[in-house]
Amino acid sequence: MITALEYAYFPGCVAQGACGELHLATTALSKALGIKLLELKKASCCGSGTFKEDSQLLEDSVNARNIALAEQLNLPLLTHCSTCQGVIAHVDERLKKAQKDDPAYVEQINGYLKKESCAPYRGSSRVTHLLWALVQDFGLEALAQRVRQSLTGLNCASFYGCYLLRAQENLPEANPFDPQSLEKVFTTLGANPIYYEGRTQCCGWPISSYATPQSFQLAGRHLQTAIAAGADCLVTPCPLCHLQLDSRQPEIGQVLGQPLNLPVLHLPQLVGLALGIDPKELGLDRHVVSTTPVLAKLGLT
Predict the structure, then answer these.
(1) Which of helix, strand or coil describes residue 90?
(2) Contact 112, 58 (CB under 8 A)
(3) Inside any domain, residue 133
(4) Cβ(194)–Cβ(230) under 8 Å?
(5) Mean pLDDT across the chain, nearest whole number?
(6) Which of 37, 43, 114, 226 is most buried when burial is the number of CB atoms within 10 A of its CB?
(7) Mean per-residue pLDDT, 223-232
(8) Is 247 exposed, middle or buried (0-12, 13-18, 19+ CB in 10 A)?
(9) pTM score over 0.90
């Protein structure tokens, strides 16, 4: 039997706001798998990569504090947001290196944390994403044993997003240019992985505020390519990618001059369906693009 898993849970901002269904799905999935999540309610926003535009020290200090909160619990820090994972894990890598090469920098950061009555950063915790936790910690063989609703016949196309593959020096993926972790999860659940150009590229979210047409064209190209490859749905480990590809898909369709209607699922929603969790408990009724075609194909409507 698998050893009970426990994590310091960093939900991130988006899963507590615009993508509230992601928090629901992660909570339901962890309960079904017997994974204990201790939410870091005092944690701060990771900055989504924007803090460092003003100050690297700011990004490092804020996220050193987030990591220190997990260290106080003697637990690895887990998030279901690839952006949060990329930012926090990259800070963790940088500070662990600085402990050897520039200890004064770490002391400076810990000085700021002390002023805020925070515990110091020690570099003792691991930062991981829900995807890595499922594949590496829980294990695909153990996950296969929990499947109650096989996803046989469902064609799933991955959309990894940027930060999950490019922010860290050390990745669980053997080849970040051709990752396989999501596809391994799909096959474990009985689904068919769909490969298409764009699954490891940017969704266009970072430029959407100032180059909206170009952002939508980029996202639209990925959606069109996935549809042409036979995808029934996209599955992403990134809530920002989900916002772009799901909530803005009607606008993207208008820019392209054609409707798309491709459901976009969060990773824990897909896994949750295979575990027999009720679709409403996973928040699948909260999406902009209806997930009904996915549920219908699985005989769940």
Answers:
(1) helix
(2) no
(3) no
(4) yes
(5) 94
(6) 226
(7) 98
(8) middle
(9) yes
Three-point CA angle 4, 9, 15, nearest 5°:
130
Q: How far is residue 2 CA from its own chain's centroid?
A: 23
Could you tell me the two tokens for 200?
């490891």
We report the CATH number of the domain holding residue 144 as 3.40.50.11810
Q: Letter for the amino acid at 149? A: Q
SS3 of 96, please?
helix
Q: What is the pLDDT of residues 7-18, one digit of tens each?
A: 999 999 998 888
Instruction: Give me the pLDDT at residue 160, please.
Output: 95
**CB-based burial, 47-74: b 16+ in 10 Å, e otherwise:** bbbebeeeeeeebbbbbbbbbbbbbeee
Place of tokens 């947001």: 81
Residue 92 lies in domain: 6-128
Q: Is 13 helix (H, G, I), strand (E, B) or coil?
A: coil
Percent of the chain whose pLDDT exceeds 70:
99
Note whether 72 and 159 are same-domain residues: no
Is there a domain that residue 105 lies in? yes
Q: What is the pLDDT of residues 35-85, one digit of tens each?
A: 999 999 999 999 987 888 889 999 999 999 999 999 999 999 999 999 999
Residue 241's CB: how many other CB atoms inside 10 A?
28
1 belongs to a structural domain? no
Q: What is the number of residues in the chain?
A: 301
